[in-house]
Amino acid sequence: MAATILDTNCELDKLTSEIFSILENKFLFGEYVNDPQLFSAKHQALPLEQLKSGKHITGKVRVLAIDGGGATDGVLSGKALVHLESCLREKSGDPNARIADFFDVVAGSGAGGVLAALLFTAGKDGRPIFTATEALNFVVENRRKIFRSPAAGGFRRFFRSPENVFGKRFGELTLKDTLKAVLIPCYDLTSGAPFVFSRADAFETDGYDFMIKDVCAATSAGHVAVEMKSIDRKTMITAIGGEIAMNNPTSAAITHVLNNKQEFPFCNGVEDLLVVSLGNGESCPGLVGKLSALPTAFVKIAGEGVSDMVDQAVSMAFGECRSSDYVRIQNDKVLASIDQMLRQKSVESVLFKGKKLVQKTNLEKLELFSGELVQEHERRKTSILPTVVLKHASGGSPRTSSATSSSTLSSN
How many CB atoms lie within 10 A of CB 287? Predict the structure, then answer.
């Protein structure tokens, strides 16, 4: 009898601890403790094991990653995003829904970085300035201006201004004007290291805040270097394309979330994530015969090889959850049209075994995954605790993005 009472007391102590933890977080995140949802019958009836897991409370962080490079210069990813946004509107019942409404983090490299900026930068009304269709049209219309052909001998240290291509669209908007956590990489020739433009870092200091037009120019620079400075003029970088630094930014986005407890306080592992990773088509088949004439083709092959390795590693990390919590859209064949690429069966990378086709097409995978995103979106409307607490003001807290190079800070 004494042992039974002791066990019961232990369980009650655990339950009490969980309840006080919930109340404490309500105060920490600035919500009212008298929220009627807090003591609803639904939450009172939850068993101890569910309280311990917290998944009914905290939900999952939604991540969008968009590759750079590839054979389509962002058009494949752009069309995938158009289809995804259409599915999200249909399933949510909101005809004005945007991609940014259903993701907490976006990481884009090269063409993917441009798409990320177009979809996640806010206008004067506080809404994204571009729909997915408008973003795709922008990339298609300005494709030749944005993604210049590489020089036959290698990289060119020619500095071009982003004003003509991106200035008209973004004006004086900066990283602080983005709606969600944004990560856009480039390779900095000044420091000889990757540099990641990060919304979180921009809110901490103007030394890491850059104009969006400069960010887009940097990540899409390709083999034409771009020189730029931060808002306070103290950080200078000489950038070449994001695909040089990280062609597939999925792992960088996941790492940012898992190591950023200030903005994603309850995310502890991949089981707490929903990830959409978009490729831009592989260009290796068209480059094989050009290796001797075009040395820079090796750079593209290396980038695409790294992208596949990232896909393999992320797939393995998700394990049994990869089919429900992680989706990768990619094409490994040169087809007549982008639409054919999306309608073909999806390609998956298998560690040490190359690639394999799966039964679902790329479009079918996006449609199914849109349901998961909408479900998480709806769940948050009745959530007790916030899944994400994004920064909205600068402060003296520790930096959250370890990916950003600090060696570029100067005294200029």
Answer: 17
| Contact of 178 with 319, CB cutoff 8 Å | no
Q: Which of 331, 371, 334, 333 is nearest to 347 (CA)?
A: 331
By CB atoms closer than 10 A (0-12, 13-18, 19+), residue 225 is buried
Residue showing tokens 């003001």? 393
Query: With contact defined as beta carbons under 8 Å apart, do 211 and 172 qualify?
Result: yes
182's tokens? 């944004």
- Please write the tens of the pLDDT for every residue from 23-36: 444 444 444 333 43
Pair 195, 186: CB distance under 8 Å: yes
Rounded-to-integer distance, Cα 276 and Cα 240, Å = 26
Question: Six-digit token pair at 344?
Answer: 């073909």
The tokens describing 239, both together, are 């950038």
Identify the H or E element spanning 228. strand 226-229
- One-letter amino acid identity for 224? V
> What is the structure's pLDDT at 80?
95
Residues classed as catalytic: 109
Of 63, 64, 62, 70, whose CA–CA distance to 330 is shortest? 70
| 338 vs 178: which has the higher pLDDT | 178
Burial 105-126 (b: 16+ CB within 10 A, else e): bbbbbbbbbbbbbbbbbbeeee
In eight-state DSSP terms, residue 154 is: B
Structure tokens at 253: 């986005």
Give the 3-state secondary structure of residue 74.
coil
Burial class of 368 by CB neighbour count within 10 A (0 to 12, 13 to 18, 19+): middle
Strand locations in 76-207, DSSP E?
105-108, 181-188, 193-198
Residue 66 structure tokens: 């968009």
Q: How many whole angstroms separate alpha carbon 82 and alpha carbon 96?
A: 13
pLDDT band at 341 (very low <50, low <70, confident <90, very high): confident
As given in the structure block, the two tokens for residue 328 are: 């990768």
Contact yes or no for 331/347 (Cβ under 8 A): yes
Strand 181-188 and strand 61-66: the pairing is unpaired
Antiparallel, parallel or unpaired: β 181-188 and 326-329? unpaired
Q: What is the dihedral of CA 363, 369, 373, 378, to 10 degrees?
A: 110
